[in-house]
Amino acid sequence: MRTLKNLLDRSPIDGFILAIVAAVVVAAFLPVRGAAGEVLDWVVIFAIGALFFLYGTRLHPREALEGLKHWRLHVTILAFTFVAFPIIGLALKPVVEPLIGSDLYAGLLFLCLVPSTVQSSIAFTSIAKGNIAGAIVSASASNILGVFLTPLLVVALMHNTGDASIDATSILKIVAQILVPFVVGQLARPWVGPFFARHAKITKLADRSTIVLVVYVAFSEGVVNGIWSSVDAAQVIAVAVISLLLVLIMLVITGWVPKKLGFDRADTIAIQFCGTKKSLATGLPMATVLFAGSTVGLIVLPLMIFHQIQLIICSWLATRYGREAEAIEAG
């Protein structure tokens, strides 16, 4: 076990990415079925609720108040997340759908509708020496608003795509699984916040374990229903290339527009890292509620691929920005 840990520590690939890949491989050969699948579905529901409870304990009200003052920053980030991304996703349809098929295109469009990430947006903004308080509030607001905006966007843009099923029950499920635990976490923060602050590894482990579990369950359903027979390696490679181009396009736009709007360097960095991200932690649970079980695997595949690409590119970019800032301070 120690040898395996040492190998993972020395690996150039993040252990989380390896875990997600492992979940897909295990689901392909050992998918969960029958009664075990039903039990695991309930485990996923509980895990998602627990995860968003932990998210609720993270954001300190003082940080929120400091960041809320900069409303132009937040409006700009939300516009990239919930306006620019969906427009680009729709514009890609005539070119992309014939290449990857309707189900994978539905997944590509869905990734354009989900909120921004919280952890990586804040972490990369910090590494790049950007506006950290603004990133905390914007990323958190994106996830909270996404509970409502993402289903509404799915209704508006995907009503005849991806076998989406949106009704009052779906909205209530999302509120119950995501928003309610988050609010409870906020209310419980004075009592449990210090504990989780001292044991940050608990939140990190819960975060990553939940995502890996959701990936395994989603892909298991796809295997059991035989949906993977409709996808080939060329389509997956095409999704990866399209995702790479989408990340690069959004990085260029989120770097250029803020400068034209008069934002300073710190704000531009926060906008760039929050405005280009798409949350796997929020998007996967939403997909399991919004889409039929037999198609969830294909729907979430583009989001999974996009997520890994954005982490790799933004990690490099944040490091570069951080070095530039250090050089400016030293000079």
UniProtKB/TrEMBL annotation:
Keywords: Membrane, Transmembrane, Transmembrane helix. The keyword Transferase does not apply. The keyword Iron does not apply. GO terms for cellular component: plasma membrane. It comes from the Bacteria. It holds the Pfam family SBF_like. The chain crosses the membrane at residues 12-30, 42-59, 71-92, 104-125, 132-158, 170-188, 209-228, 234-258, 279-305. PANTHER family: SODIUM_BILE ACID COTRANSPORTER 7, SOLUTE CARRIER FAMILY 10 MEMBER 7. This is Membrane protein. It comes from Gordonia alkanivorans CGMCC 6845.
